[in-house]
Amino acid sequence: MRHTRMTTLAAMVAGSGLLLTACGSAGGGPSTASGKISDDKIVLAVLNDQSGVYKDLSGPNSVEAVKMAVEDWKAKHKDDAVSKNIEVVTADHQNKPDIANTKAQELYDRQKADIILDVPTSSAALAVATQAKTKKKVYINIGAGTTALTGAQCNKYTFHWAYDTYMLAHGTGATLTKNGGKNWNVVYPDYAFGQDMTKSFDGQVTAAGGTVGQKIPTPFPNDNFATYITKAATGNPNVIGTMHAGGDLINFVKQYNQAGISDQIKLAVGLMFITDIHSLGADQFKGVTFTDAWYWNFDEQNRKWADKFQEKTKTRPSFAHAANYSAAFNYLEAVQEAGSDTGDDVVAKLEGKKINDVFLRNGEVRKGDHRVIHDVYLAEVKPQSEVKEEWDYEKIVATIPAAEAFKPEAESGCSM
Amino acid sequence: MSAFIQYTLQGLATGGFYALAALGLAVIFGVMGVVNFSHGAMYMLGAVGSAVLLDVADVPFWGALVIVPILLFLFGILVERLLVRWLLGLDPLYNFLLTFGLTLLIVDLVKRRYGVSGLPYQLPAGLEGRINLGGLSLSSYQLFAAFFSVVLCVAVWLLLTKTRIGMIVRASTEDAERTRALGINVGRWVTPVFGFGIALAGVAGVLAAPFRAITADMGSNFIIILFAVVVIGGLGSILGAVVAGFLVGLVEAYGQAYAPSFAQVLIFVLMAAVVLVRPAGLFGREEAS
């Protein structure tokens, strides 16, 4: 009994100590004056899925990518760096909007984060955008697909760096239709992302002169697609589009390959990461067309960066990893130019900036809606026989120029 | 009409697989009275096991079909000896919670070791093609999986009802005290039953590897459907699990074809309807109160 009381007491003392420290630093307060670095340090926070379905395609390795950006930036600026004190912190939002919301507050307020990066899962991404707006701090989204981030729910502090549903639908839908795939059937998971993607694809295919015959919803998650596939093959389509992701996508593709229709009907995948191909093997995906924001083996510049990334992580980067690197590096550049890490100052430097780096080709941070536009790629998965090394899965069929790849600024519906 | 027959065929093929997957669950409940929630995780281990064997030791599908169930049998025995047996005398809820905890543990360990995006696996050699009958066609693998499942289900049913081993096992669980008095070592017979049920989950996992995503989470959704199958068939009834397996397969196929977004809901509507009319399931024995 005595022992327990002592422990409780000790815990209370320790607890109040922590409380005091927290108050102490809060009392110091962030300096809001321009031309200063708040708390004498720049804090980059990566908020993403550290243990769930999106762990492999972004997750902990995106934190590594951000750390690489910090190293490279320090090496570039050496003595003239606006601050040598740069921290990278991270939190797991488990793909849940409520957790993302609390974590974002915690990162901005308690951990003194000057920027939040990544945030996959659209609902979580939008929750963080609201926090960025209230706290007036920078937020660069990479992992989520929703166009609302730069549309109806855009704000001054939120940027969208890598991809969105419009870009995927335009790249895959419009290009395949123009190349002769006029009749489409679409199978999609019956929740927000799937419905969104289907709407986008429908629009793009129709605009390019094609038609979407059947739109077949499936439960989510789901592992038996046999009859959905049989149904999707009726009506002689040229293309079947699937809007599934992760495990459902793998289930779909495996069963599609066994349905014996892959010779006559082309399979188009709405959203796919290189980690999906890696996990299923190139042969299962061979011939599948999709839009990629970046591919590690595209040219010498990408390859060099991918080699460095592989040294640290023992794996090849997905486009999300490269985009996190690019976003972190260019954020630090903007801080350097502004001589301050205050949200408004950095935003002013980022807006309208034209960037060419390892991830962004012909990149531009659009001023009006903060959509970051850049060249994207229509890719086809190689058969295993043409794969020369591990992760060498993609053949880039076409480069879609930055100006065409994303929704025109005038149509974004964003007013800040 | 030919489309309808095609859907029916697909439903039957899926049904055979469901029957086998649910069989181990029915055996363990029927013999031991344990509701094994970890069945989905064991099914996952079966699939992951075959992918790992292929990757590490180049063991093909046919080899995995033998090795994986043996490994899972041993693992099942370990689980029964160390954990399950201590709770056998208590309310079934305790073992339900135990196996639920076990599931979380196994799934997370697999995630830690093999990541979340899944492992690659190809169709076994010789079963890549399709079999065509008139205007209808089914993948040879699907047909093989269904046929193999049904044969195994019948074999297990015969083993438990028509052989001496089956009789001893059933006697041991029905009335352990009296069976022991007849000179039978009850403990020796009950432990392997659990191992056997787990091995059956493993077989289903190996069969699933070529046509389903092999991820740590593959069992989490599947176990719910399996519970629907055993509840419809009658908890613990092997014949029930088989019939209900086919029934669920068919309902799902027709649902996917004619009411796509309700395909999964329909299974549970069927379950609710069956339980309303026959609370013990189609082939379950009514408990004497």
TrEMBL record, chain A:
Species assigned in the record: Knoellia locipacati
Question: What SUPFAM superfamilies is this protein classified in?
Answer: Periplasmic binding protein-like I (SSF53822)
Question: Which family would the database say this protein is a member of?
Answer: Belongs to the leucine-binding protein family.
- Give residue ranges for domain Leucine-binding protein: 42-382
Name recorded for this polypeptide: ABC transporter permease
Hey, what's the signal peptide range on this chain?
Answer: 1-28
Q: Does the keyword Signal apply?
A: yes
Keyword terms? Signal
Whether Endoplasmic reticulum counts among this entry's keywords is no
InterPro entries per the UniProt record, alphabetical: BCAA_transport (IPR051010), Leu-bd (IPR028081), Peripla_BP_I (IPR028082)
TrEMBL record, chain B:
Tell me, what is an example of a GO biological process annotation in this record?
Answer: amino acid transport
Keywords associated with the record: Amino-acid transport, Cell membrane, Membrane, Transmembrane, Transmembrane helix, Transport
Write down the superkingdom of origin: Bacteria
Q: Does the keyword Signal apply?
A: no
- Offer one Pfam family short name for this entry: BPD_transp_2
GO cellular component term, pick one = plasma membrane
As for membrane topology, the entry says:
Multi-pass membrane protein
Leader sequence segment: none
Where the protein is mainly located, per its record?
A: membrane
Q: Where are the transmembrane segments?
A: 12-35, 64-87, 93-110, 131-160, 189-211, 223-251, 257-277
Q: Which GO terms describe its molecular function?
A: transmembrane transporter activity
- Localization per Swiss-Prot or TrEMBL: Cell membrane
Give the UniProt family note. Belongs to the binding-protein-dependent transport system permease family. LivHM subfamily.
Q: State the name under which the record lists this protein.
A: Branched-chain amino acid ABC transporter permease
